[in-house]
Amino acid sequence: MASPMSPSAWLRKERNRSGGGSGSWLLNELSAHYTDPRLAALYDLQNPWGADSEFYLAVAGRPVQAILDIGCGTGMMAAALARQGHDVTAVDPAAAMLDLARSRPHGNLVHWVHGLVADVRGHFDLAIMTGHAFQVLLDDETSLALLQAVKQRLVPGGRFAFETRNPEARIWEQWASQSTSASTTAPSGKAAGTTHVDIEKRGELVSFRSIYRLEDGTEVSSRSTLRFASQATISGLAAKAGFSRQTWYGDWDCRPVTPDSRELILVAGFE
């Protein structure tokens, strides 16, 4: 689950909807990678279970908890948590992804929500946002609003765990030098591939175009922009949202953050 292609920007704050407020959200434009059923079917093949998945499973731990999976995609993580006995609600705006999520093993154990954080009811012990999805929030205002919306849905003592790529590691330069070309085997047994091109950095934002070569020879292209915010920036926003306890890791084995760390992993909580 470490592909450069993260979930496309699907949340933005709406100031004036029904009187406004930090809980008001609209669906933003979704990448074809998440709305096209042909591409959605390749997602788990390109982003298999890995050390990041094991980390979030360990964060949930025991005993049974009420867990919110934000931007759940094809539901790999949500189903795994539900299989362990947790009460899992998983939300995503991409219908093609949720169709796959509902049909996966143990998918019947999860409460799936087609929509946004604002569509989720109830309170949770733990919220997670995996797959570097936090990077689709492209400015402080949107990031803060998301953090506030999540905190509103946590019980006292609840936690929010998520990750972003460390800007000091400059991972996008590897995407450019390697063309980030990858091949995988589609469910039909035929080869499919992805190439990331036209990589451009402006300030904290990195934009790139993804070309998906499908098994029938068709090519589908989509454009994405990710934010590479610093640890200090994210820490400050989390504190402003009311997360008074913050534990940071630089990798999935829980080592501390260093300038060379590829990840910035935050488990944020409050009393």
User: What structural category arises from helix and sheet content?
Assistant: alpha/beta
Give the CATH class of the largest domain.
Alpha Beta
Low-pLDDT residue intervals, each spanning 5 or more residues: 1-29
Biggest sheet character: 7 strands, mixed
CATH architecture of the largest domain: 3-Layer(aba) Sandwich
Span between termini? 31 Å
Got a strand count?
13
> How do the helices and strands follow one another from N- to C-terminus?
EEHHHHEHEHEEHEHEEEEHEE
Percent strand equals 25-35%
Question: Can you give a write-up of this model?
Answer:
With 271 residues, the chain is an alpha/beta fold. The protein folds into two domains: 197 residues, 3-Layer(aba) Sandwich (Rossmann fold), CATH 3.40.50.150; 57 residues. It is built from nine helices and 13 strands. The protein has a seven-stranded mixed sheet, with helices on both faces. Helix 7 packs across helix 9. It is globular, with a radius of gyration of 18 Å. The two termini are 31 Å apart. The N terminus is likely disordered.
Q: Brief description of this entry?
A:
By secondary structure, the protein is of the alpha/beta class. It has nine helices and 13 strands.
Write the layout of secondary structure elements.
Elements: E1 12-13, E2 25-26, H1 32-35, H2 37-40, H3 43-46, H4 51-60, E3 66-70, H5 76-83, E4 87-92, H6 95-103, E5 111-114, E6 124-129, H7 140-152, E7 154-165, H8 171-178, E8 182-185, E9 191-202, E10 205-213, E11 219-227, H9 231-240, E12 245-249, E13 263-269
Parallel strand pairs: 3-4, 3-6, 4-5, 6-7
Antiparallel strand pairs: 1-2, 7-13, 8-9, 9-10, 10-11, 12-13
Helix pairs in contact: 7-9
